[in-house]
Structures
1.
Amino acid sequence: MLDTVYRLVEPRRFEPVEVAITPGEHDIVVRPSYLSICRADQRYYQGLRSADVLSAKLPLALIHEGIGVVVQDNSNNFAPGTRVVMIPNDPATTLDDARVCLDADSRVGLHASCASDIDAKTFCRPISMFHGSDCDGFMQELAVLPSCCVETIPDSIDNQIGPCIELLSVAYNAVLQLAGGSIPAGATVGVWGDGNLGFLVALMLHVLYPQVAVVVMGKHASKLASFTFVQQTVNSALGDRPPAVNYAVECCGGRGSGDGIAQILSVIQPFGEVVLLSVSETAVPIYTRTVLAKGIRFIGCSRSKREDFTHVIELLSAHPELRTYLSALVNDVRTVRSVADMAQAFEADAHNPMGKTIMQWNV
């Protein structure tokens, strides 16, 4: 079987390449239909990663947020024509593989509990892979995935918000890291960052913990105006001071991560927890004296598991208002039929300060 893969060969230049694919006995062949451009994709497209990283990663097909239609299923679990979300984590085949990986990397002590959990299969490199970073993403005519890396989408979730399930699953996973997945009623959770990720984290907190006060810190009045479902927004560009919080999620990213963490440490209560969710290309300073004095716990989180996708789909099905908010986040849908269309979609997305650009994938 032949497949056309559309790879970024250098910043701002896509090229098609024809490859032979041979699906395994447990693999599913999916034809991508709607793809969402992520900030991580833009860092590759615009050449914002370091020269060493770009040299090591490219050529690479981008995109890890997408849905498609099953063409062939060798596992006999999905009928051809089934609409599915594609899960970008291509995990270690077995937990034994993951344990070997952890042993070889001398991290058994650090991840002793991980080796008995599905997280081991998701985070263990190089056995596990992430599409659009460690291996080709979904900018392909056909995507070959293990049967564990697709999930059926119900009719209640339309095509345009379907690609957002992946990022929403990351937000869901991050929220569950706080307080062992049970934030007490009356607590205050701060979300630092007014972009797409901050929006989805705040939205997950709103849906999962209606008895918890959610406060969003940002720098853009126009973006903060979208957070109509939270208890309070704080515009730090105007010198506004955030309230004290019990828990925090950092979604600033880039150069803003350091400032966000510093502000979190200044207002978080003793024994609070902080989830670091965004990506910075440079080292970020953390004032460890405050961390130690307050007994703060930091949690790194940027991935999600199949179970998170399943739960997010259930939430979207059960909460129409969640679908409405997610639809509002989609601000551009572009039909893509050629390499030129792909470049135009990425260029347009780069100038969108807020919201998601969806490519209707008709290659």
2.
Amino acid sequence: MLIYWTMFVTPLLASTSPFRLNRVGRRVLTLLAGLLLALVIGAREEVGCDWGSYLEHFYATQGEDLAYALTTTDPAYAFVNWLSALAGLQIHTVNTVCAVIFVTGLFLFCRRQPAPLLAAVVAIPYLVVVVSMGYTRQATAVGLLMIAFNAFTDGRRWLFLLFVVAAASFHRSAIMFAPLVAFVTPPGELRRWRPQRAFAMGTGAVASSALLAVFIGGHIEQYSYAYVESEYRAAGDVYRIALNSAAGLIFLIFRRRWRDQFGDAKLYAVLALASVATIPLMTISSVGADRLSLYLIPLQIAAFSRLPLLLPGRLRLAAKAGVGGAYAAVLFVWLQFAEHAYCWVPYDSALF
């Protein structure tokens, strides 16, 4: 349990430190922190309740040809398993490759926030500790989606779509974000002739529809049973969805100030509305709402790390302390009282 608290406290203390490194120092420290975090996630041993399922995915590719291996699970994840097995390596290699992708996406996303260290504080308790160490495929998809969100903010339409497809190749449910490509506005497009803009948006919409058909078309029955017909309820879904919805409300309350200060309101407007929509979705599918909520955690990272900057100056220090305290409580409650916390405690590593 100590390692989880160390992961949380490190960026929290760094965010309050009066010392500031130069640009080179920050990059070196960020690289070292990223490598360490990827090793902690990737080298874990029997951590997470789905550990056995991921071992089955790995063993299913051993000694098989690539064509068959790609049918065992989502294609990119299957390929990493197949290649690792072919090289005589173990599941830890698969986990480390996925961890590097996830951590890269997380760091690139946090770096784009006005308060990167506070953003990391928000990410650690659930996204890093629980999701990245428990749901390897979806965590990798979230990491790639965070890069896609950066591309959305930059107005890079096709790069956004490329990373959404990459995310879906690790967990096909991520393809649900493909239609957002129609809302990406490249620099200068607003000055273009209106029919040209409409054509570009239409092309994006057609491309995303085709991708939805490719990734989801043959799996409608599977998803219908898993997310709608099944009576299984995701443990703790109410609290996770409540955090996302609170982040969405922060955006909606401060949307004008957000737009004026940060200039990326279009992306977060969509994510905020999706976070609020997960509340009624829970009545239809607890599991479906919970899985969608994992993809919306980046909204939490952005909203709660920016909250101090959205408030008047006299409240900023208290807001920053409040965010740190709230996420310390999230980590404490999850480790102590979560139904499946025993799958994470104690933390074991293949390295020691």
3.
Amino acid sequence: MERNYIVLDLEWNQGSALTENPDIPFEIIEIGAVKLNEEKEITGYFNRFIRPQVYKKMHFMTQKVIQIRMKDLEKEETFVPVMMDFQEWCGEEPVFCTWGSLDLTQLQYNMQYYGMKPLSEGPMEYLDIQKLFSLYFEDGKSRRSLEHAVEVLELQKTDDFHRADNDAKYTAHIFQRIEDRSLEKRFSYDVFHKPVDKGHEVYTIFEDYSKYISREFDNKAVALRDKDVARCICYKCGHIAKRRINWFSLNNKHYYCLAYCKTHGFLRGKIRIKKVDNGKVYVVKTIKCIKREDVENLYVQDEKSRLKKKYL
């Protein structure tokens, strides 16, 4: 089956405070998307406005940025029928592509609020075109605005930014300019739906690192004691690497360790502890090969952590 790339952009409204309705902090009012085939040729467009059901007054910042008035939405359909049409248009097993990491999370907040079937049972793969742009055209670390990328690539600014259909088109054109097809394997993961058990955990090997997304744990201490979380596996050969520095942290959020693989040398493990709305936590762990100067820096950081514990 030929896969479709769905380049997605959303516009949303919000209440006077983000805590006004935590079940749906942002309410989607426009869906814009571009469909591309496996050769990255554009094969279709989708653009629909949505009549809001939760926040019926346009937030002043939304009004200022996207120039949509509430009365412009009064005759539009509500979220569920629009979303059903969108999913039908996407086809089977679409590969979603977004600029940044926010859109799919907010889309699933809205779907959950209205009782719709989730897009996935656990973390969902997608392509973050903002990240791929940085990897291909810049330093791989920076995260630039969509308008910056359009200017760098000297694309024509024919339409206003901050409208879902226009931003989706700009993002699709940037995606087409990324000629290294291997980057399309550099999936990001939307974790709105966390792994429910070990069977749904994510372990992915990329060219230069591995990523593990765990199931939920009752608290941080339980997570760090778990053997799947604690061990370091060399992503190049699959062997368990012996830890030279056990897991330590300077801020109680990010944890690091140093391990050694007899075949591939030193590895740095990094754990990020993520909180869940239900009070539990899950772990995102990455492991990558590092150079000698990075090894020395880890020893320095570990010593700082020891001294911090000693004098607290």
4.
Amino acid sequence: MPRLTLLLLALLAGTAQAEPISLQRGVNTTLWLEWPSIGDMLVNPSHLETFPDVRRDVTPAMYASLLAQGFDFVRMPVDPGPLVAFGPGERQDQLLQGIRIAAATAVAAGLKVVVDLHPIPRGGDIGGVESIIGDKWPDYVTLVGRVAEVLNGFPADKVALELLNEPPFDCDAVYGGAPARWPAMQAAAHAAARAAAPDMTIVLTGACWSQANALAALDPALIPDDNVLWTFHSYEPFLFTHQGAGWTGPPAKHIWNLPYPPAAVTDEIAAEVAAAAIQHMIAETGAADVAAIEQAIADYRQLPETAVTQDVTRAAEWADQHGIPRSRIFLGEFGALHTAGDRRLPREWFHAFLADKRQAAEDAGMSWAVLGYVGGMGIAPEDDPERRLAPETCAALGLSCAP
């Protein structure tokens, strides 16, 4: 879409006068932990009666515990899939009210909330991210406006709306110079949200999985709205954060016990990790790409100390270049897998990574939200009814948790 058309579209939405919501330290809550199909969700009241699932997984006592431990907000992922699948009508209205109830519960506990519209891959199912960024995009833009309308009654300093989590496309535009689709799409979604909620903060991002480089490829002048936050996600160094992750590709999914930081990997450790990864890959696929495994580990060992902070630096440079206060830059996700099935990594590696990433964001003047609350990347124990953090986790996140 031509630049002039984008500017006109943004201007039609009106330039917000309210100040952006002030965020500091947050945590990502849960998102459809069972990942049922859209069809299962639509026919199973146990899922949709407590939509979004944060309503059945996070209690007011847990929110109170987060506040007491030093968090000031939660990033609340909401799967828009069933709302898209239902379309306008009574059932979609019911789910929209569920979003409002979920946000109100956190606000009542004293926390601020970023409602994150967070579709997941679902192949050809209507409501999966593939359909949302495809032929369902016009319907999705309408839905964004409806979500903004539902949230509009909250105080502007309590609730923000993130339009789309990690747009999974336009990497060829970010890295290869191809024509970009996402700027025009984001401008349309922003216009719908702003028309419905004139004073609410809107969270914007780059394409290509919300990478820092994708944020840096955006021209913020295309959306002339000061009441926005610009978000990016950072999982670098990727081989550490996604080792053992079943949802990623080889060789990372087969590698385990790779220490952080990269300088901690000795020749002996590298050989042991490679041997175990080779056996894991053979057991799963019947063969092993030995060269790829060994090269990945060697590349990891060669990473500079700045590898963990380079995304933060890139986002800060972009903000400075465009005159955007760094307080309006939001590190919306960072984390690392530490538990995969019955396998556990030493928690000190996890904590060292969290501390380095968190400190970099704070030093740059940015807010942050760690991913996630529970699970393989979780910071909180699931056997504690209030999910209070361990002292070591609190220290890594710069929190002053009471004993």
